[in-house]
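step 4 of 6: structure.
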Amino acid sequence: MPELVDDVYQCDVLVVGGGGAGARAAIEARRHGADVLVVVKGLFGRSGCTVMAEGGYNAAFSFVDPSDSREHHFEDTIIGGRWLNNQKLVEILVEHAPERLIELERFGAVFDRVEPEKYDQRYFGGQRFRRTVHRGDRTGHEMMSALKEEVYRLGIDVLEEVAITRLLLADGAVAGATGLDLIHGRFLLFRAKAVVLATGGAGRVYAITTNPFQKTGDGYALAYNAGAELIDMEMVQFHPTGMVYPPSASGLLVTEAVRGEGGKLYNALGERFMLRYDQERAELSTRDVVTKAIYREIAEGRGTEHGGVYLDVTHVPDEVIEQKLGTMLSQYLDVGVDIRREPMQVSPSAHHFMGGVRIDPECRSSVPNLFACGECAGGVHGANRLGGNSLAETQVFGAIAGRSAALTASKRSHARIDTAALEEEHRRIYRFESGKGELPYTLRAELQRVMWEKVGIIRSRQSLEEALRKISELRQRVEQVGVESGLRYNLQLLTAVELENMLLVAEMIARSALLRTESRGAHYRSDYPEEDPRWVKNIVVSRADGGMLLRTADPVITKMPP
Amino acid sequence: MRLTIFRYNPQVDEKPRYESYEVEHHPHMKIIDALQQINERYGANIAYRSSCRAGQCGSCAVLANRKPVLACRTDVEDGMLLEPLRNLPVIKDLAVALQSARPRIASLRPYLHRGGSTPGGVERIELSRLRALEKPKACIECWCCMSSCPAHTHTKEFAGPALFRLLSRFVHDPRDVLDRLGIAVSEGLYLCTTCGTCRAVCPQQIDVTEEIRQLRHRVYRRELMP
Ligand SMILES: Cc1cc2nc3c(=O)[nH]c(=O)nc-3n(C[C@H](O)[C@H](O)[C@H](O)COP(=O)(O)OP(=O)(O)OC[C@H]3O[C@@H](n4cnc5c(N)ncnc54)[C@H](O)[C@@H]3O)c2cc1C
C-alpha cells in the first residue's frame, strides 16, 4: 500500500453513486456474481435526486389508457427530445421500463393502483396518454426504499460519505479510483476491475436548482478526466415550476404532478397564458415550452410580486390534494401557504441534465472498463427530457450497466496502480489545505450566479462568451483557495474539490452551447431563435492535449427520422 | 439574530463547547440556511449534514432548543440553540454517526421474505393494503424519534421507534411471511412506554406509538404474551 493512502479497498465492480441507478447497477452486478462495492458521497439512497422524485415513472402498461403502447412511448420521447436522442437507447428504455418497475415491487415497493392488478397512471407533460406510474407524490422515495431493501438482502457493501475524486488508469483502461472519506478525512484507494459511474447530474452549478447539495457533476468530471466522451452537455432542463419565495425555498421543485392532477397556470393579470403558447396541450406541454412561456410572462412584466407566475389547484378537491400531492401541501405549509386555499407562486429552476457520459447500448463509455448509467449518462433524452422518463432510465440502464460491468470484471484481473497518479491526486486535493486565500464558497456562488444568468434558460453568443471568461477567471482563483486543515467532516475541503468539478462541467455546458447555433429543446439562443434542421447533431466533448475538444456527431436513428 | 451552536471534534477537543454566531435573517429562513450562511461568512466550518432541502431525504435532523427537527424545514429563531441528535456518537459538531445504527437494522432482516414463488406480471395487492402501507413506508429515517425516545435513551434493549416502524412496514405488507412479531418481542416491544414522543417529533407524522400498539395487539392475538 502506497504510503499516502490511508486504506485500500478491492472489489470486482466499483459503483460510484447511491441513487436509483447506482443501487440498481449494484444489484445486477451482484446477481452476476461480482463482488460489488457502492461508494456514495452522501448517505446511501438519500443524497441524490432519486429519493426526491415525486411525480412518477413512465412505463407503457396501458392500464388507464388502453390505446397507449411502447411505440407511443418511443414517439413521445423522440418528439420531446427534438430528435437528438439515441433512438437505440430509447428503444431499450420503452421496452424494459415496465418489467423493471414490476421488479421494484418484487424488491418491496408498492405503486398506486386502480385495481388490485393494475397500476394507476397519470398524465405527465409531453405525453399523449396517462403513462406515469406513481406512489402518491413520493415515488422516488418508494423506489429507493425498495432498492435499499434489496441491497440489504444481497449483502452488498456500501461505503457512505466518501467522494470519489479521480479514476485511475492502467494502459488506457480504468483500474480503480481515489476517494476522500468525509467522516474520517482519509485518502482512499479503490482497486476495481470495472467502474460504474452513477453520480447523477449537476444542477448545483446553477444558482437556482431543484437538486440536492451533492449534485455537482462529479461523474462528468471523473469521466472527462479519464478521457471518456460526453454528449449533449448544453442540454440542461429548467423545470418550469420551482418555488420562488421565500429565499430559503427558492428553486425547490413543484412537481409536474400538480399540473398532471389539474393545476392551472395564470399570470398576474389572471390570464391562463399557456393557451397562448400551446393551445392544445396548455399546462401539459413539454417542459422546454412551459419554461420559456413562464420566463417570457415574467420578463414581459406579467409576473407576480415575488417574480413568478401563479400555479393554482384550489379547484382540485382537498382529498385529492392531500392524497396525491401531500408533499407539495406540506412544502408550502412550511412557508405559510395553504395550496388548498391559495395559488402557489412558481418560476423555472435548473433540474436535469439530459447530457452526460456517452454510452452504447451496453452502457459502455468510450474508455475500457468504465460504464455509466442514470443521469450521469447521456443520450436517452436528447434535447429535452419527458418527466417520468428518468426514474425509468435509472432502473433500465442501471441494470444494464451492472450486468456489463460484472461481465467485464469476470474476464480480467486487477491491474497495477500507477503510484505517480496517486501521488498527483493526493497533492491536488490537499493543496487546498496550504492555501491562504478565499474560501471555496465565494467562488462557488459566483459560478452559480454566472451560470444562471449567462448559461441559463436564454443564451446568446455574448452571454456565453462572458460566462467562459468568468469561468477561466474562477479557475485561476481556485489556485488561491484555502481551506481549514482538519480530518473530520471537513466541508470546506469537500467543497473545494467539488468546485473544480463544477468549473469543468460549467465549461462543457458553455462551450457546447456556444457551438450550437440554433435553438432546440432546452437550449435556447436569443441570437438563433429557430430550430435549424442542419443541427440534428449531437455535440461530443472530450479531453485533448490542448484543452477541451468539441465535435459534432450524427444521432443514432433507428426508426423515426426527423 | 444570534444562534448558539454545539462545537466538538472528538479527535482533538477534550470536551464540547458552544459558540454563538450572528446571522442575517430573512423571512422563513430555515436552520439549514443559517448554517450555510455561518460557514460561508465566518469560515466556521461547522460540520452538518444536508442534502435535499425539502424534507425528503432525512439527512439534516438536529436538536433545536433540545427538540429534534429537520433543519431544512424548521424556521430559525433568535437565540436558538443547535445541537447534534442524541443517542448516536458525534462525528463532529452537528454530524452524528448515523451509520452506527446499521448493524442493528441489518439484524432485523429488513427486506421482504416471500413465501413460495413470485408471480409473473403485476402482483395482486388489494387497495386497502396499499393504504395501510402508506404511513409506515413514509419514514425518511431522519432519526428524530430515535433521538428523543425516553425508553431508547434509557436502555438500548429497546431498539427504538424507527426500528419498530421498519418492522411494522413488513407486518403491514401482505407479501411478507417472516415472523416479524418474534423479532419485535426480542427487540423490546414491551419496553415502549407509549408516551407518544416519537409521534410528536416525527416530521412525517407517522404514529409510531400506534404502530407499536398494533404490533402488541397482534402478538397478543398470537398468544405470545411474554
Ligand atoms: C426534485 C426532483 C424531482 C424529480 N422527479 C422526477 C420524477 O417524478 N420522475 C422522473 O422520472 N424523474 C424525476 N426527477 C429526475 C430524477 O430523479 C433523476 O434524474 C434520477 O433520479 C437520477 O438518478 P441517479 O441514480 O442517476 O442519480 P441520483 O439519484 O442523483 O444519485 C446520485 C448519487 O451519486 C452520489 N455521488 C455524487 N457524486 C459522487 C462522488 N463524487 N462520489 C461518490 N458518490 C457520488 C450521490 O451522493 C448520490 O448518491 C426528479 C429530480 C428532482 C431533483
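step 5 of 6: annotate
 - Chain A is about 35% helix and 20% strand.
 - Chain A has a mean pLDDT of 96.
step 6 of 6: archive
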